[in-house]
Amino acid sequence: MIEFKNVSKVYESGNKQVKAVDNINLHVEKGQICVFLGPSGCGKTTLLRMVNRLIPISGGSIHVDGKDINTMNPIELRRSIGYVIQQVGLFPNMTIEENISVVPNMLGWDRVKTKKRYSELMEMVGLNPDEYRKRYPWELSGGQQQRIGVARALAADPPVMLMDEPFGALDPMIREHIQNEFLRIQQNVKKTILFVSHDIDEAIRLGDTIAIFKSGQLMQHGTPDEILSNPQNEFVRDFVGSDRALKRLTLFSVRDLIGRIEHFKKGIGVRKEFHNFIVQVNTDLRTALSVILSSPTSDVWVVDEKERPIGLLSLSDFEIFTGIHPAELKSIVN
Ligand SMILES: Nc1ncnc2c1ncn2[C@@H]1O[C@H](COP(=O)(O)OP(=O)(O)OP(=O)(O)O)[C@@H](O)[C@H]1O
Ligand SMILES: [Mg+2]
To answer: Where are the coiled-coil regions (predicted)?
Structure first.
């Protein structure tokens, strides 16, 4: 668990003082991803780098697993915290294997253990260990370098990870792919992760919770659902965007929705004539809504994983979930 208690940072810049982080109180539970979200200059990187003491704290305290980081040896602290910086930061003069082995070598692991760990990590991030072993970073695509950056940060199996816009430089398609892979890895490794982003969609996709900052102050901390359904002030409302109701739909699947609908519970509707507009129970509600809106009858068949029909889902069923009138739903999608 990571805990920020009244944490502040004041930079001395010439004879001016810049309050980059202003009295932050925040809890991040063990094994969860907390996304730090906010516009450029709001203090995300500063807050992150105070956790591994790359930046000294001006006021307050930070605790990792109950320990005040200022009482810990900074070198040991950093070994227990994986750090991925924005521009990947692979060492250009080192091969991929050498890059990933930096921390294990620092920790004095023997060669066999380090080699084994290299292969393990490469498998984990979906790259062939032998194919890339002797290559240099510049011989890899941006997405591949990004994965090496993540693998390197995971090398010594640290319980905590700090990730500063690790996927920021990637184009949207690759980015979504890497985000999904990252979530898949996280399901197995269950690290406590502070993840900086300025992209609301990335925050919704990756965060167990989202902390939104403005000018060094914490505006709101909550689950993506809480943030989207109940933004606490004007700033958060603007930041998440006017389509927050639609974004919220991406958090849920068709299964979540039909669990709340009486005719699905009773199995009514299955006898009706089957048509071509179909969604699977695992489809997210945002996608399902698009299919419904393209259907001439404004409804879709829901099928289970084996493509067996379960029932008919209509536009009006979305009203239950969103509280938004079907006509209005139609207009905000278009
Ligand atoms: N070394 C420094 N000296 C003085 N001011 C600094 C220093 N580093 C950062 N700042 C200021 O502190 C504030 C927060 O900076 P920080 O880098 O934490 O923002 P950020 O949220 O990470 O922004 P970005 O999204 O652009 O990376 C900014 O106003 C910045 O100008
Ligand atoms: Mg930053």
So the answer is: none
| Banded pLDDT at 89 (limits 50, 70, 90) | confident
- Ion ligand 2 neighbours (CB, 5 A) are 45
Cα–Cα dist 191/163, whole Å: 12
Render pLDDT for 148-188 as a digit per residue (tens, 0 to 9): 988 888 888 888 999 998 887 777 777 787 788 888 888 88
Residue 120: domain span: 2-243
Total domain count, the chain: 2
Closest C-alpha among 140, 159, 1, 136 to residue 65: 1
pLDDT in the model for residue 258: 87
Nearest protein CA to atom 7 of ligand 1, as residue: 11
pLDDT confidence of residue 177: 79
The tokens describing 7, both together, are 């944490």
Q: Which of 17, 37, 42 to mutate to test the pocket of ligand 1 (most atoms within 8 A of CB)?
A: 42
Q: Is residue 249 domain-resident? A: no
CA of 174 to the centre of ligand 1 (A): 28
Atom of ligand 1 nearest to the CA of 196: 22
Strands of the sheet containing 67-68, edge to edge, are: 16-28, 2-13, 59-64, 67-68
56 close to ligand 1 (CB < 6 Angstrom): no
User: 197: Cβ below 6 Å to ligand 1?
Assistant: no
Residue 39 alpha carbon, nearest atom of ligand 1: 25
The percentage of residues in the chain with a pLDDT greater than 70, rounded to a whole number, is 96
Closest-CA residue, ligand 1 atom 11, reads: 20
Q: Distance between CA 154 and CA 146 in Å, rounded?
A: 13
7 touches 57 (CB < 8 A) = yes
Identify whether 202 is part of a domain.
yes
Are the CB atoms for 74 and 55 separated by under 8 Å? no
pLDDT beyond 70 at 39: yes
- Percentage of the chain surpassing pLDDT 90? 54
Ligand 1 touching residue 44 (CB < 6 A): yes
CATH number of the domain to which 220 belongs: 3.40.50.300
